[in-house]
Amino acid sequence: xxxxxxxxxxxxxxxxxxxxxxxxxxxxxxxxxxxxxxxxxxxxxxxxxxxxxxxxxxxxxxxxxxxxxxxxxxxxxxxxxxxxxxxxxxxxxxxxxxxxxxxxxxxxxxxxxxxxxxxxxxxxxxxxxxxxxxxxxxxxxxxxxxxxxxxxxxxxxxxxxxxxxxxxxxxxxxxxxxxxxxxxxxxxxxxxxxxxxxxxxxxxxxxxxxxxxxxxxxxxxxxxxxxxxxxxxxxxxxxxxxxxxxxxxxxxxxxxxxxxxxxxxxxxxxxxxxxxxxxxxxxxxxxxxxxxxxxxxxxxxxxxxxxxxxxxxxxxxxxxxxxxxxxxxxxxxxxxxxxxxxxxxxxxxxxxxxxxxxxxxxxxxxxxxxxxxxxxxxxxxxxxxxxxxxxxxxxxxxxxxxxxxxxxxxxxxxxxxxxxxxxxxxxxxxxxxxxxxxxxxxxxxxxxxxxxxxxxxxxxxxxxxxxxxxxxxxxxxxxxxxxxxxxxxxxxxxxxxxxxxxxxxxxxxxxxxxxxxxxxxxxxxxxxxxxxxxxxxxxxxxxxxxxxxxxxxxxxx
Length: 557
Hints:
- The structure is a single chain.
- By secondary structure, this protein is of the alpha+beta class.
- Among the domains are: about 10-30 and about 455-480 and about 510-550, Sandwich (Immunoglobulin-like), CATH 2.60.40; about 185-285 and about 295-320, no CATH class.
- Helix content is about 45%, strand content about 10%.
- The protein is built from 18 helices and 18 strands.
- The chain has helices spanning about 10-15, 20, 25-55, 90-105, 105-125, 145-165, 170-180, 200-215, 220-240, 265-280, 285-300, 330-345, 345-360, 380-395, 400-415, 430-440, 485-490, 530-535; strands at about 70, 75, 85, 125, 130, 135, 245-250, 255, 255-260, 315, 445-450, 455-460, 465-470, 475-480, 515-520, 525-530, 535-540, 540-550.
- A hairpin with a 4-residue loop joins strand 7 and strand 8.
- It is globular.
């Protein structure tokens, strides 16, 4: 029958679920129900963090300090300055409260979160759109911070843009990065760079790659190329094929340290993303970059322990670890390894990712940050390591890794105090980031337009592009579906693994018809993917969502 016609009750029953899926549907809906409980738990925890931090906002600016002025109702010493910094509170806290509010409290998102952006621009801008540190007690501004601009963009505004698209925060990022690059202070034979360290240059490459793809403005691509050229043509050849934590571009020498946790691995990720963009466009640079980046990744993989885990920092020449602590950011680097596989088809890079994912069950309750003798350590190590795994299982759903994510989320969620805080510093935004990533994994990207306590959304994938969806809520709600944001928002040819992305799970195509059917058979709708993205009103219960194809009109002659 024509797909643009209403379905009769008889036809609806015939279109239920494929035989293979029908036999699995009971257990699959049980899993969807369990996933919905995880979804609610994660969002409730995130909402508690959101409201805990809003209590500490500056009275004039509404901006958030890096650290709170009191703990459990007890004030800290008066020497503790209420300081807002774009590289800490701006990068790691504020953006994930934006995303939490957008999901849990639209009025707060459009109101106070937007007012915070106005005030951030109003009170912290010190040179064009470049921000500075702000003393919330005195109003004193520090000097312009290119580091602050880069961190705020890469760790925060990129995530907001990856999930929400071209909001006012996107335009803040675009102008801030452009103004910072125009004032880049570190001379090199390739042009002025943001700095001499792998962290800052990597931050800018990651932001510039997205901006170049989204805007098609040549300046963003040329700036990204300037930094990448400096590493491909000077740093990597001069540092045993890997980035140096610090590099003097006037003396052409570095510190011989390869840092594989944050504050160093950013250049590894940035180089691969810039290469992905060049490769997609089949530019001469793509061929030039490929061999150098392949060697860089090969040497990094060679430095790993037998399970594939990476150390915090290794000697660039010998690849021997400079300390025995494992990096909680292992998956950021493996995301780059997988993106290189997506570009080149080199299966050994995919195999390396699958190996480390398969070994994750050995690292339950691992102390990623802190002393092994003092478990569980900081929540932040858990947040980054789980985030790492979520990016990768989105592409390679290794069973052991999926169960590891759930077990470690239980540990991290258990660290939250009754009042909402965990450790009373800006890194609590990373807790929200990972909780949101986990929640959307459990719902396959499906979400209510406005979540509130008691609303549970869980889903599992079936065959034939089918989704089994479980909804628990007091009454009917508008339910929204995800789409191919990497293509529609970022303008990328492939869904490359990207640091600070929000992975896509079950995505609907805007111009495909979908059958949305209740498990009881009482309701069935035929909707375009574009309508599901905007939102469809559904009642509590179990639903099957299945792509209906683009069949032509039936021949009525």
